[in-house]
Design brief:
The complex is a heterodimer.
Chain A (H helix, E strand, L loop, with lengths): L4 E8 L8 E8 L6 H11 L19 E4 L2 E4 L11 E5 L6 E3 L2 E2 L2 H4 L21 E2 L46 H5 L1 H5 L6 H12 L6 H8 L13 H5 L6 H14 L9
Parallel strand pairs in A: 1-5
Antiparallel strand pairs in A: 1-2, 3-4, 3-5, 6-7
Helix pairs in contact in A: 5-6, 5-8
Chain B lengths: L7 E5 L3 H12 L3 E5 L15 E2 L3 H4 L3 H17 L4 E2 L3 E5 L8 H11 L4 E4 H7 L9 E5 L2 E3 L1 H14 L3 E3 L2 E9 L2 E9 L5 E5 L2 E4 L5 H7 L6 E12 L6 E4 L8 E5 L2 E5 L15 H14 L8 E12 L14 E5 H5 L4 E6 L5 H16 L10 E2 L5 H8 L1
Parallel strand pairs in B: 1-2, 1-13, 2-9, 5-15, 13-20
Antiparallel strand pairs in B: 3-8, 4-8, 5-7, 6-7, 10-11, 11-12, 14-17, 14-18, 15-16, 16-17, 19-20
Helix pairs in contact in B: 1-6, 1-10, 6-11
Classes of the chains: A alpha+beta, B alpha+beta.
C-alpha cells in the first residue's frame, strides 16, 4: 500500500452512551481505495467497534449507502480519489440511526404500499404469504425447449425499453439502497411523504399490474402524501446508483393521474 | 403448527450457512438466536458472483458438489421464487482445446442428473450475440442468477417470523466453557457497546471462512482453508445467460449478468486470515483478459467495482490455490472430534446448497438435543426479503 493517507471524519453514535460525535482517523489509501475499504481498514486496525452496513461490494445489494462529504453514495463504489484530503462520512438522512453509520431500513420499506405486491423481479410473483407448497421430488428439473430467435436487449436499464417478445428476465433495477429517500429535499421536511422509491415501485405496478387494480394504485399514489408532494428537484435520479430513474416514474404517475379516464386504450 | 421445544440454539454467523440453519431449526420448533458481528451477509455470502449453480461447473471433478447443486438449486427456485433470473447458462468452447472438455462435461452432467443440451456455435450465437464469434460449440445448463443478499434475507425473515431472534452487530468475543462443555458465548453488542454472556443448550459455529477462528475460541479445531477470489463488476449487460468457459475451473472462466452489471469471476488462492483480503490489480486485469475471451466487448466495459471474497473451503494446508479442494460441506461434532460437548461446526459448501447444508446440520443438532422433529424446509415457501425489515420494525 502506498504512503499516501487521507483523514476520515466518521460519525459515531452508540445507544445509551451519550450523544453523537465525529472520530478522526488517518487511513492509508491506494489508487483504487474506496470509502468502504477505508472504513473497513479503520474497523480492522483502529476501532473494531465501528458499525456499518455492507454486503456485495459492487453496488448490487444497496447496503452500504451513506453520506460522503454530504452526498449520497454507495461506499463500495465511492473512490477516495474523487474526494479531498479530509473526508466526512455520515449515515443516510431521513432514516433513523441505529448505531454509527447504520440506519434502520424498516423506515424505508414501511413507505411502500403494503396493500399491494411490490414488484421485485421480472418473473411471476411469489406467494407473498409464504407457506407450504407441494414439491414433486428433487430431480424434476428440465430445460425448457430452446427458445426461438430471441429479441436481444443488451443494455436496457428500463423495463419499458424491453422489446415485445423478449424471453429473458432480469431482477428489478431498484436495489432498495435508500439513497433517493436520503437525497429527497421533500422527504427532509415533509414527514409523511412516501418518497421516490415507493412511488417508482407503484409506477411499476401500473406497468405490470399482477392482478392489482389500476385505480387502487393511482388512488394510493394520488394521496396527499403521494406524487403531488414532489417538487421535481430530481435529487432522487441524481443519487440513484442503479439508474432506476425514480423521478421519471413519479412524473409518469402524475401523467396517469391527470389523464386517467379508466380506459387505458383511450389515453394515447 | 409445529411443536415448540425448549432447547435453545445459538448460531454464530449471519450468512448463508447460519441463515439457512436458523430457518430450518425455527421451522422444527426450536428456540433460535443468531448473532452476526456486522450486517447480515457481510462476510462471504453477500459478495459472490451471483451464480445459482446448476452444478455443471463441478460435475466433472467434484461430482458430489455437482449433485448437491442441482438438487438444491431446483428446490431454491421453488421456495424462493422472485429472487432469481432463471435464464440458464452456457458452457462455451472458444478454442479447439476447449472442445476436449465437451464430452466429459456432457457425460458428467448426465450422470449427476444435471440437464444438458448441446448447441452449435450458430445456435449459441443466436441466443447470445455478444459471445466470441470464434466460438466452437456450447452446452446449455440450468444455471441462474441469484440476488445473494435477498435470498438469505428471505431465510432470515422466515426464521424471524417463526420466532428466531436475529441479532446483527453482535460480535462473539469468546466461547464460555464449563467442564468440557460449551455453554454459551461472550458477546459485544456494537449497537450499545455493552458486553455480556449468552447461555445456550447448543452453540453452532456457522462462521464460514471464519469458522476456524471461532472454533479456536473454544479450543477446538476445524480444517479450514479460506480461499479468496477476485471478482470484477463492469457496467452494462452483455448477456442474459450465465456464460462459463468450457474447460476445467480456472481464472476468469465465468460471466454472470446481474441487473445492469456483468460480473466476471474469479481467481483463487489461499490465505490465513479472511479479514485481510487484498484485491491484486493483476487479478483484476486477468478478469478483463479472460472474460473478454468469452465476450469480447467486456474488454472495454467500464469498471464498476473489483473486490475479493473468501470461499470457506474444508481441507488442510498444502492446498496452493484452493481449486483442488471440494466445494461440498462438512459438519463437525466437537464432542467426537475434540471432546467438547455442546458445540457443532457446519462449514464449506456454497450459497446454492445452503438449504441442504442446514438440513444435515439441523438433523445433527436435533439428535444431540434428543429432539425428534423432521426437516420441513423443502416444502416451505420463504417470505419475501422485505419481510426481514417489517419484522424488525415489529420487534
Amino acid at each position: 500500500m502506498s504512503e499516501e493517507t487521507r483523514s476520515f471524519r466518521v460519525y459515531r453514535y452508540k445507544r445509551g452512551n451519550g450523544g453523537e460525535r465525529f472520530d478522526e482517523f488517518e487511513v492509508p489509501v491506494g489508487p483504487h481505495t474506496t470509502v468502504l475499504d477505508a472504513l473497513l481498514w479503520i474497523k480492522r486496525h483502529r476501532d473494531p467497534s465501528l458499525a456499518l452496513r455492507h454486503s456485495c461490494l459492487h453496488a448490487s445489494c444497496g447496503t452500504c449507502g451513506m453520506l460522503v462529504d454530504g452526498r449520497e453514495e454507495l461506499a463500495c463504489v465511492c473512490s477516495v480519489e474523487d474526494h479531498g484530503s479530509e473526508i466526512t462520512v455520515q449515515p443516510l438522512a431521513n432514516l433513523s440511526i441505529l448505531t454509527d453509520l447504520v440506519v434502520e431500513m424498516n423506515g424505508f420499506f414501511a413507505r411502500f404500499p403494503h396493500e399491494h405486491p411490490i414488484i421485485r423481479a421480472s418473473e411471476p410473483p411469489p406467494d407473498a404469504r409464504g407457506g407450504e407448497i407441494h414439491l414433486e421430488g428433487d430431480h424434476e428439473v428440465t430445460l425448457d425447449p430452446l427458445p426461438g430467435p430471441l429479441h436481444y436487449h443488451p443494455l436496457h436499464h428500463d423495463h419499458r425499453a424491453a422489446p415485445p417478445g423478449a424471453d429473458f428476465m432480469r431482477l428489478e433495477d431498484c436495489i432498495e439502497c435508500g439513497l433517493c429517500l436520503s437525497a429527497c429535499p421533500v422527504a427532509a421536511t415533509s414527514r409523511g411523504y412516501v418518497g421516490p422509491a415507493a412511488l417508482a415501485a407503484a409506477e411499476r405496478l401500473l406497468e405490470e399490474p399482477r392482478g392489482v387494480k389500476r385505480e387502487d394504485v393511482l388512488a394510493w399514489a394520488g394521496r396527499p402524501e403521494g406524487v403531488w408532494r414532489c417538487h421535481v428537484g430530481l435529487e432522487c435520479t441524481r443519487s440513484c446508483p442503479a439508474d432506476a430513474i425514480p423521478a421519471e416514474r413519479i412524473m409518469a404517475l402524475r401523467r396517469e393521474l391527470i389523464f386517467d379516464d379508466g380506459d387505458p386504450k383511450e389515453r394515447e | 403448527m409445529s411443536t415448540r421445544h425448549d432447547a435453545h440454539v445459538l448460531i454464530i454467523g449471519g450468512g448463508a450457512t447460519g441463515g439457512g440453519l436458523a430457518h430450518d431449526l425455527a421451522l422444527r420448533g426450536l428456540r433460535v438466536t443468531l448473532v452476526e458481528r456486522g450486517e447480515v451477509t457481510s462476510g462471504t455470502s453477500g459478495r459472490h458472483h451471483g451464480l445459482l449453480h446448476s452444478g455443471a461447473r463441478y460435475a466433472v471433478g467434484d461430482r458430489e458438489a455437482g449433485v448437491e447443486c442441482i438438487r438444491e438449486s431446483t428446490i431454491l427456485k421453488r421456495i424462493a421464487p422472485g429472487t432469481f433470473e432463471c435464464n440458464d447458462g452456457l458452457f462455451v468452447a472458444v478454442c479447439e482445446e476447449d472442445l476436449e472438455y465437451l464430452d466429459p462435461l456432457v457425460d458428467a452432467c448426465t450422470e449427476a442428473g444435471i440437464p444438458v443440451q448441446r448447441l452449435s456455435a450458430a445456435q449459441a450465437l443466436r441466443l447470445e450475440p455478444n459471445l466470441n464469434p470464434e466460438l466452437k460449440a456450447a452446452v446449455r445448463v440450468p444455471d441462474a442468477t441469484v440476488d445473494p443478499m435477498r435470498l438469505i434475507l428471505r431465510f432470515l425473515a422466515t426464521a424471524r417470523h417463526n420466532g428466531a431472534d436475529i441479532r446483527p452487530y453482535m460480535e462473539v468475543t469468546g466461547l464460555v466453557r464449563h467442564n468440557g462443555r460449551v455453554t454459551g458465548a461472550a458477546l459485544r453488542d456494537h449497537v450499545t457497546g455493552k458486553t455480556g454472556e449468552f447461555n445456550a443448550d447448543l452453540v453452532v459455529n456457522a462462521a464460514g471462512p471464519w469458522s476456524g477462528q471461532v472454533a479456536a475460541m473454544g479450543g477446538a479445531t476445524v480444517p479450514m482453508t479460506p480461499s479468496p477470489g477476485v471478482l470484477l463488476a463492469v457496467r452494462g449487460r452483455f448477456c442474459n445467460m450465465v456464460i462459463n468457459r468450457m474447460h476445467k475451473s480456472a481464472d476468469g472462466d465465468i460471466v454472470v449478468p446481474q441487473r445492469g452489471l456483468s460480473i466476471v469471476g474469479t481467481s483463487s488462492w489461499v490465505v490465513e486470515d479472511p479479514d485481510e483480503l487484498p484485491v491484486p490489480e493483476d487479478h483484476v486485469e486477468r478478469m478483463y483478459t479472460e472474460g473478454s475471451k468469452l465476450i469480447p466487448a467486456l474488454r472495454h466495459a467500464p469498471r464498476r467495482a473489483a473486490w475479493s471474497a473468501a470461499r470457506p473451503l474444508v481441507g488442510s494446508g498444502g492446498a496452493a490455490t484452493g481449486r483442488e479442494l471440494s466445494r461440498t460441506f462438512q459438519t463437525f461434532d466437537h464432542a467426537a472430534r475434540d471432546g467438547l460437548e455442546g458445540f457443532v461446526t457446519i462449514t464449506g459448501g456454497k450459497s446454492t446448497t445452503l438449504r441442504g447444508m442446514a438440513e444435515v446440520c439441523a438433523d445433527l443438532v436435533c439428535r444431540k438435543l434428543g429432539i425428534d422433529a423432521p426437516c420441513r424446509t423443502r416444502e416451505h415457501v420463504l417470505l419475501p426479503h422485505t419481510a426481514y425489515y417489517s419484522e424488525a420494525a415489529a420487534a
